[in-house]
């Protein structure tokens, strides 16, 4: 399964950028974001359109 991870603006929460990763990478990315206080949003990627 693949997930889209969006990095969010600290002020208004708008998406600054996004990337699609495999399930095995999600935990590492969450840990990195938590360590620097970065806001992220994770959702299943729509693989039908990719």
Can you describe this structure?
- This protein is α+β, with helices and mostly antiparallel strands.
- Helices cover about 30% and strands about 40% of the residues.
- The chain has one helix and three strands; from the N terminus they run ββαβ.
- The chain has one helix at about 25-35, and strands at about 1-10, 15-20, 40-45.
- Strands 2-1-3 form a three-stranded antiparallel beta sheet, with helices on one face.
- The longest helix has 14 residues, at about 25-35.
- The radius of gyration is 11 Å and the shape is flat.
- The mean pLDDT is about 90.
What share of residues is helical?
Answer: 25-40%
Give a count of the beta strands, DSSP E runs of length 2 or more. Answer: 3
Distance between the termini: 13 Å
Strand content: 35-45%
Q: Which overall shape is indicated by the principal axes computed on the Cα atoms?
A: flat
Q: Please give the order of strands in the largest beta sheet.
A: 2-1-3
Q: What is the count of helical runs?
A: 1
User: Roughly what is the average pLDDT, rounded to an integer?
Assistant: 92
Structural class: alpha+beta
Poorly predicted spans? none
Using only CA atoms, what is the Rg? 11 Å
For the biggest sheet, the summary is: 3 strands, antiparallel
Order of helices and strands: EEHE
Instruction: Kindly report the oligomeric state of this protein.
Output: single chain
């Amino acid at each position: 399964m693949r997930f889209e991870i969006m990095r969010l603006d600290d002020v208004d929460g708008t998406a600054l950028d996004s990337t699609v990763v495999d399930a095995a990478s999600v935990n590492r990315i969450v840990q990195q974001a938590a360590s620097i206080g970065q806001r992220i949003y994770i959702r299943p990627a729509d693989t039908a359109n990719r």
